[in-house]
Amino acid sequence: MPTEASSSPAAVWAILRKECRSEWRTRYGLNAALLFAVTSLTSVSFAVGRLGDRPDVLAALLWVVLLFAALASLSHTFVREVEGRTMTLLRLVASPTAIATGKLLFNLLFLAVIELVTVPLFLILMGAPTPSWGPFLGVLVLGSLALGTGATLVGAIIAQTRGRAALFAGVSFPILLPVVAAAVSATRAQWSGGSVAVELRLLAAYGVALLAASLMLYDHLWED
Amino acid sequence: MILRGLLLLWIAAWIVAAFLWAPLVPVLGPTTRVLYFHIPSAWVTVLALGWSMVHSVLYLRSRNLEHDHQAAAAAEIGLLFCVAATISGSLWAKAMWGAYWNWDPRETSIFFLLLVYGAYLALRSAIDQPERRARLSAVYSAIAFVSVPFLVFVVPRIYFTLHPDPLINTRGKIDMDPRIRVVFFALLAGFTALFFWVQSVRVRVARLERRAEER
Amino acid sequence: MSAAAAAVEARDLIHRYGARRVLEHLAFEFAAPGVVAIRGSNGAGKSTLLKIVAGLLRPSAGALSVQIDGRDTPPLARHRWIGYAAPDLSFYPEFSAGENLVFAAETRGLDAPPRAAQRALEQVGLASRSNDRVAALSSGMLQRLRLAFALLADPPVLLLDEPGSHLDEAGRAMLTDLVGKRRTTHLVMIATNDEREGALADRSVELAGRGLGDPA
Q1: d(Cα C151, Cα B178) in Å, to the nearest integer?
Q2: B182-200: b or e for each residue (b if 16 or more CB lie within 10 Å)?
Q3: Pairing between strand C61-68 and C6-17?
Q4: What SS3 state is found at C159?
Q5: How much is the average pLDDT of A21-32?
Q6: Which residue in A73, A177, A55, A67 sits closest to A123, CA to CA?
Q7: Which of A1, A7, A91 sits opposite C109 (nearest CB)?
Q8: Alpha-carbon gap, residue C185 to C5, rounded angstroms
Q9: Backbone angles phi, psi at A140, to 5 degrees
Q10: What distance in Å separates residue A25's CA from the closest CA in chain C?
């Protein structure tokens, strides 16, 4: 007779693995996202050339490219379930929190992969000065965590609407804007030799606040 | 019926007083009068947002559609007042400092509130089923509640560390002559009452719409 | 699991889709063991009722409770005690039948998920198709897969919406056998218009749009 272990961590892990396996099989999401990131990066680089002496513009461009890449891809994990009509299956094997958390972790992983490709490419193509690696990576990590958390919740919401992906950018923008603002400021500061402590604390606080609110709200996402 | 008439008379009377009775603030000159309109509009924007968010959370806890009617109505009205505040602020900025938009902290904050309202209403318009619309917009409202303090207080400050502006902004330091204070608070009260009145009408309409649908 | 005492109770249950009232003041109480048929014409609310029992749908008004061993089960966690199969249950097309069930078993936290999946497939006669992609399955095989999914964790309550659809004679025999084996140990609720499926039941609820459900 099958018995059941305490479901949540196992469920989250199983869902994360399923997302990864699914993405690996179809690969359409990752390809599209990487293509998008590289294309926008190439357009920017082609248009403005090397900007080694403008850390302010560099910081802004980097986060604009990352934001757009996130907006182009982080809602897919929910939209695919809705369009493939597999939400019923998911809801019958896991709690809403487990589902959303599993997909959140997947989105963070997805973002990390995109950044692994995009960021070095950016630094090279744009002729950026060498970053202060500690602060630079700190901003990247904390910024991505906050970006992913916000985008996952909004993605889950808009997947249930008409218009979905088209709505995603506009509806998520107010939620993601604090992340982009703080990240741009910090990225620029670390190139100018300034301190990023304030922005890092901000990103961490905002990320934690978003996560805490999300964990309370996930249960309300699916009721029909 | 009578209260409505009295409210409109109240507002009209104090608008006249703003032009004929209250003095001008020296540093603002003839543009003084905008503050009677602009600041109450901004206040109602914030009030409406808070009202909407509170009712969103109440909806999530009770699933009573009444709260959804309140939240949606407040958002619609809040958007109108937000547009009014943004435009009046912009015109005032043009008169005072020669530019319609400066990304000055308060301009930035009111613009972000415009974005939040817009996103909330856009989301609602994309869902047909009443319960799903109520639930998902309430969830969004709740998460936006986390973002608003960051958008209104933190982000403008970040902008200013990025672009320290020599433009001197004295709007915060208005020394209010007693007559100015009277007109200002009278209109502040008037605008608040106006919000609650329009809100109650809008909610009644929503209730009737729902009842008609369910028949 | 199967030995758990299960009961499903509806009190003044109402559900609306916008302007259309689908369930109205429905009341009943069914306790395990047994097989209940939920009858009604198209659009009478059979699928809606099963969705509410499964915890997939929150009713507009009224209460529906599913009790296991005397304790109420919250809707968001109800999947732990029910098995559900309905025409709109879809699987991941990029995975095989077996992989879909293994995923379901893993997520549910079952012991030895591959074995649970294999056992479920065997019960519905799909063991040989375990490695076939879902997209390659016929409608009849897809229906068997849905039944396998419902049986996966051997839940005390089985909710079957039109379980015989697309099944050939062998499939229907399998279904009859499946339900028959659980008649004295589980609570099975079957939503159906089909007399063959209805004949499996020893109790029934008639949904008539406006009006009370009347347990036979």
Answers
A1: 78
A2: ebbebbbebbebbbbebbe
A3: antiparallel
A4: strand
A5: 88
A6: A55
A7: A7
A8: 9
A9: -60, -45
A10: 7
Contact B143 A206 (CB under 8 A): no
- pTM of the complete model: 0.92
What type of residue sits at position A35?
L
Nearest CB neighbour to A94, from listed C84, C90, C107: C107
What does the domain layout of chain B look like in residue ranges?
40-210
Which residue type, as a one-letter code, is found at position A57? V
The candidate with the shortest Cα–Cα distance to C75, out of A135, A52, A223, is: A223
Name residue, tokens 């804007």. A177
Q: Please, are residues C133 and A29 in contact by the beta-carbon 8 Å criterion?
A: no
Structure tokens at A60: 């802004």
What is the token pair recorded at B121?
A: 């209403």
Q: Rounded to whole angstroms, how far apart are CA atoms B49 and B63?
A: 20
User: In this structure, what token pair is assigned to residue A168?
Assistant: 């995603």
Residue-wise pLDDT tens digits, C105-146: 999 999 999 999 999 999 999 999 999 999 999 999 999 999
State in Å, rounded, how far the first CA of chain A is from the last one. Answer: 31
Q: Is the ipTM of this complex over 0.90?
A: yes
Of B91, B97, B85, nearest to B170 (Cα)?
Answer: B97
Q: A130: Cβ–Cβ under 8 A, 6 or more apart, which residues?
A: none
Class of residue B15 by CB neighbours under 10 A (exposed 0-12, middle 13-18, buried 19+): middle
- pLDDT for A41-100, tens place per residue? 999 888 888 888 889 999 999 999 999 999 999 999 999 999 999 999 999 999 999 999
Q: How far apart are CA B147 and CA C102, in angstroms?
A: 40
The interface residues of chain B toward chain C in range 57-116, judged by CB-CB distance below 8 A, are 63
B155 closest CB neighbour out of A177, A217, A224 = A177
SS3 content of chain B, % helix, strand, coil (to 5): 85, 0, 15
Chain C hits for A16, CB-CB cut-off 8 Å, are none
- The reply to whether residue B129 touches residue C17, judged by beta carbons under 8 angstroms, is yes
Please name the residue that has the structure tokens 């390659």: C136
